[in-house]
């Protein structure tokens, strides 16, 4: 099979890495200038800055994990998409715990294996406990002592499950978080829902050697490689 982007026969590429993915993992040496700009924005941007990231952005031969490989296939969409993700992770009014609570609500609702794999690790780094993570994974409300965190959780849960905010939840969110933060929260939920859909459609699971999350019985998404959003 010839890759329409690189012109390479994908069957000649090394076979390490997730085998079920529908988009062949692109080698760094095969990238066009436009694809290289996306690659460098992901691997050289704030996701990779500071301490060692809690999960690898690429495999041992440089191919991107998770949603980032798909971004390379359409650089005109992939570059602003990764920048939106960086803005939502690093340039909002939320604390790191608040941000990860909202992201994990989306990952759990979508049964997105990769999204949970990555953000569970980020959440642990920023102080989420085993009990809190278990509750989020199982779709339960965690015991949160901080009022802002409780509001973020409930608003994210309602956005993910119902695609809307009831008047009472919206009013409480604005009063507690502020209008700007509510705008950011709606954008964050929508962004991670879009990634979960992309991950599912392209059959992207957790990296080789990693265990997928143990979702509760009665998965509404049904079976399939990588879960509902991988």
TrEMBL record:
Residues 82-157 form the Carboxymuconolactone decarboxylase-like domain. Gene3D superfamilies: AhpD-like. Residues 1-26, 210-230 are annotated as: Disordered. GO terms for molecular function: peroxiredoxin activity. It comes from the Bacteria. It holds the Pfam family CMD. This is Carboxymuconolactone decarboxylase family protein. PANTHER family: 4-CARBOXYMUCONOLACTONE DECARBOXYLASE FAMILY PROTEIN (AFU_ORTHOLOGUE AFUA_6G11590). InterPro entries: AhpD-like, CMD-like.
């Amino acid at each position: 099979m010839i890759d329409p982007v690189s012109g390479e026969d994908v069957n000649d590429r090394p076979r390490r890495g997730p085998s079920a993915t529908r988009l062949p993992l692109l080698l760094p040496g095969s990238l066009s200038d436009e694809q290289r700009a996306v690659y460098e924005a992901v691997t050289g941007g704030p996701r990779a800055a500071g301490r060692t990231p809690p999960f690898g952005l690429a495999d041992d031969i440089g191919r991107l994990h998770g949603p980032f490989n798909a971004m390379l296939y359409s650089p005109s969409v992939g570059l602003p998409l990764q920048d939106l993700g960086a803005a939502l992770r690093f340039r909002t009014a939320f604390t790191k715990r608040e941000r990860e609570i909202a992201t994990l609500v989306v990952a759990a609702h979508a049964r997105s294996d990769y999204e949970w794999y990555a953000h569970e690790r980020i959440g642990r780094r920023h102080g989420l406990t085993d009990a809190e993570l278990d509750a989020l994974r199982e779709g339960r409300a965690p015991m949160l002592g901080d009022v802002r965190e409780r509001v973020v959780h409930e608003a994210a849960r309602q956005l993910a499950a119902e695609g809307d905010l009831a008047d009472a939840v919206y009013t409480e969110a604005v009063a507690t978080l502020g209008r700007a933060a509510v705008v950011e929260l709606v954008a964050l939920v929508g962004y991670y829902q879009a990634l979960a859909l992309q991950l599912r459609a392209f059959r992207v699971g957790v990296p080789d050697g990693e265990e997928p999350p143990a979702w509760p019985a009665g998965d509404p998404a049904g079976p399939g490689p990588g879960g509902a959003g991988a």
